[in-house]
Write a structure and sequence with these properties.
The structure is a homohexamer. Chain A is an alpha/beta fold. Chain A is 43% helix and 14% strand. Chain A has two domains: 106 residues, Rossmann fold, CATH 3.40.50.12500; 106 residues, 3-Layer(aba) Sandwich (Rossmann fold). In chain A, β7, α8 and β8 form a beta-alpha-beta unit.
């Protein structure tokens, strides 16, 4: 079984980090493939970064489907383009936020999320709510570090994460904590060890979910809103990237 | 990895049926064990049947934990005693309703459920809502057959299920349909084939979820509401089953 | 009119305490009967304790119905087995949590709950939400004492309760406070007097609700999900308590 | 104990009808008083009729409090001015919609409401939702008769009500039906008898709730939003009714 | 285009203040008319004050409609009588709370509200929830000053508002703040300047919304619950204001 | 005041149609500019079409901001990229779905939406829910025509729309109907005339909302989640459009 784990940003070291986590937990028969687009933002911190990443991510989904990939994981905690990816694929598509939330709802009655920048907090709150876990989620917290800084200063990142996880346990009465960024995946075991709190990494959660769905034969439903996109070209043929037509008054 | 699939009712033929589904989809390394209590109702159709099944089911969970079971599946669509089982176990505990809902939310934007008796409809609606999928669930439908009748007259059961699944597709615009009773598990492939609708069986969903959780090292959180029950005896020693103390005026 | 007030745990001193509260507020014509099972946990602190109490509690409901009891009160704040009890009875069945919430929604726009152990907080939150008062409930607080310690050290209990009630008033802006454990019933008047906050005891609330329902002629609806359980024996006859059948691979 | 049952519209025959229902179910020690304002609309069918009824209704609450009334019932299914009445009274104030919903949530898992005119449907839906029963309410139906027509042609009213109650049972799978207008109170027993469906009348529900609250010593909380209105005169002294000041450009 | 901005309380200086804000932002072609009733409370602080203001406010709506007013603004943050006003008018009726919430949901992902007295907090929470912004609203805060004190001591009011707005930004992570009282309208620009937080005034929001609706030709729908009130007199003719009929036992 | 009305698909005839509607309702002083990208899908029917349209749409927003545009309208009913656009702009950004919902919530208590293809129904349901109008929206209906077919056979489109609008009025009891596609904008007046139902077009609603916001001086909040995207290049420099980097195992 080949699982495609896509990092929608363009930072290869982050893709490598995601790969390490995915391979560590994959079943023996699973082949983990990891990809990232070249042209997308170096990290995804907000709606616009998400939007700039999705078209190239969909190309990777499409390429994977042609190449016999059985299931797809979107390894960015905002789950950018999840609906679009499901339209594009016949195999199941798992977002790391949704998968982490599903694990959290299974192993704990209440959880909190810890992410990178405060600006992502409302985005993640909305995702968690749309996955039906708003009433289970005590808080979405932020360590106030950009995504790429997690790699640059791992010790600082871990110290800040420990602080927020302990606050989640003590102030929020969270029974588990979800890491709200794929770039935190490497710290997961360390954080559980240091805090005693069950820490849930979405990359791990999503890989296991994808393996299970594929092995059991589940596909994305093509009845209704996740049907393949209707084939269509731009109205006037493809123009060069970035060129803009305007029909101003 | 040993997964304990517990049928909380006392009907061995239903346990055998559940076992067939579980084994069909288990990963090669997974050992599926199936159990049912002897003393519980022959089928679970309502709150009282649930309540009468849970204490003996918890005994099976406890026995499994002692015997080295890694994860537990509760194979009744009402997910009876799910919270109690999670308190009792260190391994993850997966209910077939919750697991089916999680699969449905991954492969479809809207789904319906088809269960046995109309009296179970509000119970299942409440479960689906508590798992955060109320807004994704178009309807809970009933074929109006008791649980054990599914086995007795399989052809009638399939005909009624096909009718409801087609109604879910055409009237509810459901993109997938969940089978709302463990006793329907055997029909799953047939129903997908006959209707073209992705049909989701909770036994299959839960086994895959449990395997993934165990393999990735997830446990039930013991911080907070799923902590082990505080040890306590009855206030006046154990009395014979069914005996009742009263302190009437 | 005979009202059955059932303490689902097996501690007679707690049953006596509940009886005192119930009798203090009953109408002249009401006969309060109190019961507790002998075989259930000494206190109910979590899902598993609940589950272990319900079957014997249903026996008491059934016995009461045969004996001409007109209405039933379940005197544990988790409202364990409420649905099962309603299936079992023709008379109305009132849970002390639901009744307290209904009183709170009538006399105050916002309320908080104070319970015993932190582990019960999510359970009570979910109950309050299911009774439709999530948006009215400011917080569920815990004094961090086991249920039976309330009796053992009443002065400490009152001091802790006063602290939490004042916090509910000052920090949550609660307009009333619900006592989240039947074992706190005796303290109700004292707590109102000391804090000036309207304190609502579920035992009192439920007795009045039950009297009113019975006197007006309301019964539990037998159309649909609260219909009597379908009669059924275990599939293989009743086995001795605790014996377990397994059909292991 | 004196309970004030206020009909906020100005139709004395409807007040008399409400009185009959209230007296039929009152406990022996309860004195039912009924009142209606003279100056309000003859029936309440919409937001504006509600608004025109509340000030005079508050006068009746205030007069009742001065006269030693212990509890108040607002006998219009829109529960007009419920918050304002609670600010005005120290005794508990019960609305017939809220009380009926509380009874329905106790004796049935799902219910429907049948009211008079279609224009009231969204108003009642919003009330039911605000009382936390949106997920329990299958539908709000209308017989499409004005309020006062209920009295004029009782046989037609009963026939239409039977039709809607049966539709609620068969199409909505309602387990109980609430009568969505105080003017239907007289038909309650007949409707239950003809349809076999438990029919809940808000006047009855509210009287029992009010009796219970008063007897147990509950008052409206004066901490927070139901505190007495701050005393204040119009900025420029009371003008004749209907006179209008304008400060047009 | 003539827009009627109604201050439902009877304080002319507050009407003048509202007028200043409305005129400051009106389009050149808009004629702002402002009105207040003479007989209503001097300020609106709670449900009862609201109720006492609505009948005279509806008279002003009716008078406006006869005089050719195209759209109406209710300039009290509780949006008292909004449904009744919509029944009464053919032109669109905009409440300043609803309009402010709509602006906030357009320019910010999360917002807080700052109002006058703590007793208004639950009222505003309920309004915000009914407008569908409960999940976007971080908190409703109060400066703990009566409405009319805002005018009397503007510097104190501004200082308290600044404190709460900064708390909303720093503790709630609000991205914008809504002023929860029409009497704060004059401070809006100052508060934005002092705090750097986008501050939204409902009077401004509502005037712009009303202008847009009118100019585009929108009217209040007369299909259903906002249809004109059915014409009806009091059952026994109009009595003098305040006179009370009673049909006591 | 210059308002940028962006059609995110690449079909110029649809841009022209949108322009006609926008100009018809604009205030005299408003300059309407309309734009569409050249490279996006010819119509937007699903998540993937949305995703393929957003990057070029953001370029148009950015270009508009540089050129002195004061406010932006996204003229596709899915409101694609609304959050990303708000991050990108200082001026307010109005989506036609959100604006239509806000108008509907002002002029009607309940509404339905009529869109093109059934596959868009869940997408629109989720948008409406996220704008807080789930409880006000009776149904999202589809005429089952692709977007571009609306132009090709206007008479058929109008006939199908009339049928669905009448069903919304009669079966859903909708008090107003929202047109769920920018391409229906031209039919708005005709549909109101033929059905007597208030029909709300999002293009019109959004233009009026944008004018009002701009004229009153509102901007998108830059505190928090709508702050400008943090500047960042792709990790490895920009590659040619469509080229894909992979770091496969």
């Amino acid at each position: 079984m080949r699982i495609n784990v896509i990092n929608p940003n363009s930072t290869p070291s982050m893709t490598a980090l995601i790969r390490r986590s995915a391979e560590r937990v994959a079943f023996p028969g699973t082949v983990i493939e990891t990809h990232n687009p070249l042209s997308t933002p170096a990290s995804i911190e907000g709606h616009a970064d998400e939007a700039m990443s999705v078209p190239a991510m969909l190309d990777l989904i499409r390429a994977g489907e042609r190449a016999g990939i059985a299931g797809h994981v979107i390894a960015c905690f905002d789950d950018p383009g999840l609906g679009a990816a499901r339209e594009t694929a016949r195999g199941p598509v798992v977002g790391i936020c949704q998968a982490a939330v599903q694990v959290a709802m299974t192993v704990a009655a209440r959880f909190s999320v810890v992410t990178t920048l405060p600006r992502s907090v409302p985005i993640i709150e909305d995702r968690v709510e749309s996955y039906g876990a708003g009433h289970r989620c005590r808080a979405v917290r932020a360590v106030d570090m950009p995504v790429l800084a997690l790699e640059e200063d791992g010790e600082d990142a871990i110290a800040r994460l420990v602080r927020q996880i302990e606050a989640a346990r003590d102030q929020d009465r969270a029974e588990a904590v979800i890491l709200g960024c794929a770039g935190m995946s490497d710290f997961c075991a360390t954080l559980t060890a240091r805090t005693g709190v069950p820490v849930i990494d979405g990359v791990i959660a999503a890989v296991k979910m994808a393996e299970g769905l594929v092995h059991a034969g589940f596909h994305t439903s093509k009845l209704g809103s996740y049907d393949f996109p209707r084939p269509k070209a731009p109205a006037h043929g493809a123009a060069g990237a970035g060129s803009i037509a305007s029909a101003t008054r």
